[in-house]
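Support case: user asked for a sample of complex input and structure output to validate their parser. Sending the pair below.
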Amino acid sequence: MQTTKNVLVEIEDLKVEFRLHEGTVHALEGVSLRIPQGRTLGVIGESGSGKSVTAQAIMGIIPSPPGKIVQGRVRLYLPENGSERVVDVTELPPNGAEIRQIRGKEISMIFQEPMTSFSPVHTIGDQIMEAIRIHYPEVSKKEARERTIEMMRRVGIPRPEQRVDAYPFQFSGGMRQRAMIAMALICHPRLVIADEPTTALDVTIEAQILELLQDLQKEFGMSIMYISHDLTVVGGIADEVVVMYLGLVMEQAATDELFDNPLHPYTQALWRSIPTIDGELERLSPIRGALPSPFAVHKGCPFYSRCEKRIPGVCEVSRPPMIEVRPNHWVRCFLYSE
Amino acid sequence: MNVYKDMLLKVEGLCKYFPLQRGFLRRTVGYIKAVDNLSLDVRRGEVLGVVGESGCGKTTLGRCIVRVYEPTDGQMTLYVDGRELSLTELSGEEMRLFRRSVQMIFQDPFASLNPRMSILETVGEPLLVNKIASGRELEERVAKVIQQVGLRVEHLRRYPHSFSGGQRQRIGIARALVVEPKLVVADEPVSALDVSIQAQILNLLKDLQEQQNLTYIFVSHNMAVIRYISDRIAVMYAGKLVELGPKHELLTRPKHPYTELLLAAVPRTVERRRGQRTVTPGEPPDLAHLPSGCVFRTRCKYAKERCAEEEPQLRELETGYFVSCHFAEELTLSGVAPRVQSFAA
């Protein structure tokens, strides 16, 4: 789509299905997006939008079965010895040596619930340094421990020399999330995927974690894919935003552009439906109806049933293409086709 | 003016301590002061928003008021039907009046409905249990309330699994409202819902409140939601009420340093690019080991010696405006930029 250079990840027309007893869930229905190097891509979506499946596809961890990549490409452009190595994750065996060399080293992930993402029976330090031990076997145990302590200090864990031997239950929620960030960054990956990393945290702690991620990005230069249902949080951290709905990218633009000039009826409706701390205090305009069943098949626009601006006879008949309405501002809606 | 005329609930010195037990014999080694010496009034027809971070005691406060928890100490008085009910010593007959007057709406619409009960049974149960209605009358009242919350009569024979999250929350609201209560305690009623559904439920709660002159205690961690729904806001920190006042004043000119910190952390939408969200280090204290003096002093950038020595009491700074900070008069704190706060109804 865009002609941005310095792309780290390129997803092209990705379709993923989950074949369950009750039917087939079309989790991704042709998702295309790019994650630029050293920048933050925000992904906004409600449940069922496919935002987490997109992340799983990049990591090569879509549970299969029942999940299946039906079509599409997930290319990683990894700089290597002055040239560039291109890897298509969809072609790699999910537990093969090559993808395992990439996971944890080139790409890592921060999850929502830090309590369930740590093993309760290993120390925080052992879990953080595991990635070094796997990806850099030449590094001594002592050296790995020192790097771990240094990284724990960097993410703002007090007294890291002592806390390195603590267990996850001895950490508060905010500290566990810091430890998870340390674990994700210990090998200096090129991409960190953060899937709702602050949803379980209090707002004052959330602000701390977001600031930390931005500081670490300046320092290490990694790309961040920041996934959230919370528009205001994404607006505060992302350089560019994609809005997803039921397995499709509906709109994509630079953050300020997207917040100032939302074009897709879904994005506009979402903006009007959320209470804010500093906007006008007027009655909220809810989006009508409910999210369709995950088993539903949409021939046309998946937002058709809830859209205020739908064009009957057009929108439900065929799927709208992505259109560049303004420079680098893409919208999937027939309202903008000529 | 008679203070009792517009007062619905008076809470005085409410405490709820949970014992902290250790070892094989479950010896009590200390207490978690989930709510400590909390006093506030709830006025008839208002929405009182209770906001704070996890562990601040806001949920415990709500549960004490609906009598899910037995308070450790303190008085709660409910003024209904021209009577004064002391909530800590209810007789059998008073308990029935209390159950008709105070109801609760829960956070998780998936966990709070019994999957084996039809919607008619779920919503009708409070009428049956409290011997308010049965048979034909019960069905009629359930049918009426189910339409008020935006569902249809044909839904009554269905079971929770066939409803979406938003619809289930409507069912939870119908169950609370079917006994025609005076006071509804809503504990994070929209937090588990998808963004596009939250607005539907918030608007529904607001409409029902206005139509039926209900009083809400609306508990949430989400300041934007609290701002939208509340008339007055109570801010809690580590089991204490730190500030209570009218919404507009509290948001634009907070008087307690914790309120300032909390407001600064909320992401802005309008002023997003100007980097209005400020970050303060530190996290809430361990409730089992609270600092001496003011519970907030360990995170407070204005803290002085006196804050460690003397615990500030909640006091009325101006009429109807309560703060527990020694230096509330001297500090000039910043809140959210003022905007048009009036409601276009």
